[in-house]
């Protein structure tokens, strides 16, 4: 199946002009096989109901992240080698939608702490699924999910971990913006002012001396390098023109990646994911050298069973490396 998608990608690239082709670095045969093994590992861990179990039990965010990993390799509900896996997963996420618009699994467990993070991931996944399938059931849940995000934006422009208006850390602020931008690109109405307000807040946490975005302020910690990657990525995705917030922090992310094995980064797959998307979105000048650092690292760290740790870590790694396939619209150049 992977070979088939590679052929499709090759045909697609032949139709691109020289400038567009220059933004894409080819995925090596070794990395392609590695990604295939990663998908098989994820598929083997899917629950019969279509979900994946994580740190919070069945979780819509972690399940949606896994589904996006399959989608990034061209697998949609009912389409592709893992079409049945994606189909079951999407149906499970749809069933978790509440009348308020919130997407959250609550059966038989206490309220989960990162509710809005999971909701935003579910919204992002559904917007990509809807953009490619135009299924009415997906569109209905997606619109309600987007409205919920709009309703609980904090006064300063951010979001918190619960479904109430508050301004949280950079990590939780970025994901709802990602979801809103994806929905907007898919044709769902999202006020541009909402996104602009969120970006304005994230910019207040930028440390120009360190060329990094802070976790909750301009205070910088290498432990939270993933937050800077997230901030840099969302600036790229949303079309920020000031290179102070795009290229300079991206150069810093590359410097950190150059010493990734020694860097004291919390949640490295998270860092890899956002840094990859930011690099890819900025074109070949950043993405080609990034791939030269990323692929050897992922090939070395992959486990014998095809995973890169937990299923959400595996999903992040697959999403980080599969960008050149360009199957998920919001990641496309």
Tally of helical segments: 14
| SS elements, strand count | 4
Order of adjacent strands in the largest pleated sheet: 1-2
Residue-averaged pLDDT: 90
Distance between the termini: 24 Å
Cα-atom radius of gyration: 18 Å
The low-pLDDT segments are 1-21
- Give the ordered list of helices and strands: HHHEEHHHHHHEEHHHHH
Question: What is the makeup of the main sheet?
Answer: 2 strands, antiparallel
Shape category: globular
- Beta-strand content estimate: under 5%
CATH fold-level assignment of the largest domain: Glycosyltransferase
What is the CATH architecture descriptor of the largest domain? Alpha/alpha barrel
What is the number of domains? 2
Would you spell out the secondary-structure blueprint of this structure?
Layout: H1 2-14, H2 18-21, H3 29-44, E1 53-54, E2 57-58, H4 60-71, H5 83-95, H6 115-133, H7 136-151, H8 170-185, H9 192-203, E3 206-207, E4 212-213, H10 225-237, H11 247-257, H12 268-281, H13 284-301, H14 311-321
Antiparallel strand pairs: 1-2, 3-4
Helix pairs in contact: 3-14, 4-5, 4-6, 4-14, 6-7, 6-8, 8-9, 8-10, 10-11, 10-12, 11-12, 11-13, 12-13, 12-14
In summary, what is this structure?
With about 325 residues, the protein is mostly helical. Helices cover about 55% and strands about 0% of the residues. The chain contains 14 helices and 4 strands.
């Amino acid at each position: 199946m992977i070979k088939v998608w590679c052929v499709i990608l090759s045909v697609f690239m032949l139709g691109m002009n020289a400038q567009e082709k220059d933004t894409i670095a080819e995925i090596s045969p070794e990395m392609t096989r590695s990604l295939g093994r990663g998908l098989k590992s994820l598929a083997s861990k899917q629950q019969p109901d279509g979900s994946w179990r994580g740190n919070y039990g069945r979780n819509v965010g972690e399940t949606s992240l896994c589904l996006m990993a399959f989608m990034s390799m061209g697998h949609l509900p009912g389409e592709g080698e893992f079409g049945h896996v994606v189909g079951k997963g999407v149906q499970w996420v749809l069933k978790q939608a509440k009348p308020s618009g919130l997407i959250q699994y609550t059966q038989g467990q206490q309220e989960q702490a990162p509710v809005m993070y999971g909701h935003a991931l579910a919204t992002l996944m559904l917007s990509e699924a809807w953009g490619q399938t135009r299924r009415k059931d997906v569109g209905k849940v997606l619109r309600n999910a987007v409205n919920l995000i709009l309703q609980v934006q904090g006064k300063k422009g951010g979001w918190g971990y619960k479904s109430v208006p508050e301004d949280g850390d950079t990590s939780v602020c970025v994901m709802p913006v990602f979801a809103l931008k994806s929905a907007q690109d898919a044709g769902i109405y999202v006020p541009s002012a909402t996104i602009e307000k969120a970006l304005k807040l994230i910019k207040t946490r930028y440390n120009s001396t360190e060329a990094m975005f802070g976790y909750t302020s301009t205070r910088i910690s290498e432990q939270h390098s993933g937050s800077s990657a997230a901030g840099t990525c969302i600036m790229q995705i949303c079309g920020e023109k000031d290179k102070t917030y795009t290229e300079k922090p991206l150069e810093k992310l590359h410097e950190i990646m150059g010493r990734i094995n020694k860097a004291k980064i919390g949640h490295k797959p998270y860092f890899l994911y956002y840094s990859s998307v930011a690099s890819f979105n900025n074109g070949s000048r950043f993405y080609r050298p990034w791939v030269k650092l990323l692929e050897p690292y992922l090939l070395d760290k992959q486990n014998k069973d095809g995973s890169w740790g937990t299923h959400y870590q595996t999903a992040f790694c697959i999403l980080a490396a599969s960008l050149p396939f360009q199957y998920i619209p919001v990641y496309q150049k």
